[in-house]
Design goal:
With 318 residues, the protein is of the alpha/beta class. The chain has ten helices and 14 strands. The strands form three sheets. Strands 1-4-3-2-5-6 form a six-stranded parallel β-sheet, with helices on one face. A six-stranded antiparallel β-barrel has the order 9-10-13-12-11-14. Strand 11 and strand 12 form a beta hairpin. The two termini are 32 Å apart.
């Protein structure tokens, strides 16, 4: 897959590219609805012996257009999105740098410069995709703006159990700690990445040494609580119990920094400084302040047992 980053105004001409079938969208999460759009573009490209492509945007338009909003938390920050697109085996990924100037393009100007000029022969997008200034371009206006240069395919709304498959729904599930629902719509487990950093080392004194993960601020994080996770570290996947919170047994949560601490089952290697991947499976309880250390240790042991049982039942299902 070739990644092409476009800054407005770009200087590419249509003879710089072969005939392209372009999937359009922001694609945060690259969930099963997004995959439907992208796979449809791939199928059309294969049928016509053309190249498949995806166009996405960075940063999120709300960063540029939102009042006073300087950042946004993503289900899949750009680096993760690129890797997921590569797994889907598209030929090109166009990443358009979303700026104030770019946002002022009229719908027909966007189509001319970013579709016709890139040699797009067929555009595929979800029913609610919008483009151009104020989002006035829609999937209903796209065929007329195409001026006969390319065809248009609209992917209708997709649902699972009467639940619309959307980045908004997935984001809400993650923020509520409903990881199983989020993962169902993603079509995979929600993941985050970050380096293992030095913490207070309290877990070691308790008999449960933890890996403290510093997660990039771009990531959307699950609700505070205790989770069953898998972690890719030292070249292998390991089961783990993850705490997202403020360690209330040791701290007053107010004003303290959120921490992500993971106890890895049956693992004793030094992974300080390593970038690890956390795969979020299930929230098992709220964060709780314990009266003494022995109560905390007993609860951690229960969490470990729950984690082993969860993965054992998962293996039985597969």
């Amino acid at each position: 897959m070739k990644v092409i980053k476009l800054n407005h105004p770009h200087s590419y001409k249509n003879n710089d590219f072969p005939s392209i079938v372009m999937a359009l969208g922001f694609f945060d999460g690259v969930h099963i609805g997004h995959q439907k759009v992208i796979n449809q573009a791939k199928e059309i490209a294969a049928q016509h012996k053309q190249q498949s492509a995806v166009m996405t945007f960075d940063p999120h338009p709300s960063v540029v257009l939102g009042k006073g909003k300087t950042d946004v938390h993503y289900i899949t920050p750009l680096e993760d999105k690129i890797k997921l697109m590569a797994k889907l085996k598209v030929d090109y990924l166009f990443v358009v740098h979303f700026t104030k100037e770019f946002s002022q393009l009229l719908p027909e100007e966007f189509v001319k410069s970013y579709l016709i000029q890139l040699n797009v022969k067929h555009a595929v997008a979800g029913f609610d995709f919008t483009y151009g200034k104020f989002g006035k371009g829609t999937m209903q206006t796209l065929p007329s703006h195409a001026q006969g240069f390319f065809d248009v395919t609209i992917i209708p709304k997709l649902e699972i159990h009467h639940q619309k498959i959307s980045s908004t729904s997935i984001r809400q599930f993650i923020q509520n700690g409903e990881m199983e629902k989020a993962n169902r719509l993603l079509g995979r487990y929600f993941t985050t990445k970050g380096p293992v950093i030095h913490g207070k080392k309290r877990g070691r004194t308790l008999g449960f040494p933890t890996a403290n993960i510093r997660t990039d601020h771009d990531y959307l994080l699950p609700q505070i609580g205790i989770y069953i996770v898998k972690v890719f570290a030292a070249g292998m996947w390991k089961q783990g119990v993850c705490s997202v919170g403020f360690n209330p047994t040791f701290h007053n949560p107010e004003g303290k920094q959120l921490s992500i601490e993971i106890y890895l089952l049956d693992f004793d290697q030094d992974i300080y400084g390593e970038i690890v991947t956390v795969e979020w499976h299930k929230r098992i309880r709220d964060e709780k302040k314990f009266n003494d250390i022995e109560q905390l240790k007993a609860q951690i042991q229960k969490d470990i047992e729950n984690t082993r049982e969860y993965f054992s039942s998962l293996n039985e299902e597969t």
